[in-house]
Design goal:
This protein is α/β, with parallel strands linked by helices and about 140 residues long. The protein has five helices and five strands. The protein has a five-stranded mixed sheet. A hairpin with a 4-residue loop joins strand 1 (about 5-10) and strand 2 (about 15-25).
């Protein structure tokens, strides 16, 4: 099993979920449990701190995208913070940088600082985003 540890900090403005290790298929259940609990909070603003995530795969990306969608349906939000260049590349390949606000730092994510959004193009962008749900798959 891939090593992933999680820490949860409940602030007035948001719940910050700090991930450490590999955010991959083998650790998906740990992440799913933590995200599900965060979705139960009344403030429903979730910041996922990826600063200590060494790697992420399509399972981790899809779990973040699905949770962001659920949070939005419930009137909240999920944003990402502090990913390393490898994680940014994977998020970009999955089309996630266009669907989930991703900030350079946790503080910028908490503040909603639009100047700190990660938007720069990747050297080798993917031609299409990964499908998010069945409807997306049919149109891709």
């Amino acid at each position: 099993m891939a090593a992933l540890t999680l820490a949860v900090e409940r602030l007035a403005a948001a719940t910050v979920l700090s991930c450490h290790g590999a955010l991959v298929a083998a650790s998906a259940m740990q992440l799913e449990t933590a995200l599900s609990q965060a979705l139960l909070r009344p403030d429903l603003r979730i910041v996922v701190d990826l600063g200590a995530v060494a790697t992420i795969d399509c399972t981790g990306v899809m779990m973040l995208r699905v949770t962001a969608g659920i949070a939005a349906e419930q009137g909240g939000s999920l944003v990402l913070a502090a990913p390393n260049p490898q994680v940014v590349h994977t998020l970009r390949e999955g089309g996630t940088l266009h669907t989930i606000a991703t900030y350079h730092t946790v503080q910028a994510a908490l503040d909603g600082d639009a100047d700190a959004l990660i938007t720069e193009p990747d050297a080798t962008p993917a031609p299409t985003a990964w499908p998010m749900n069945r409807t997306d798959r049919r149109s891709a």
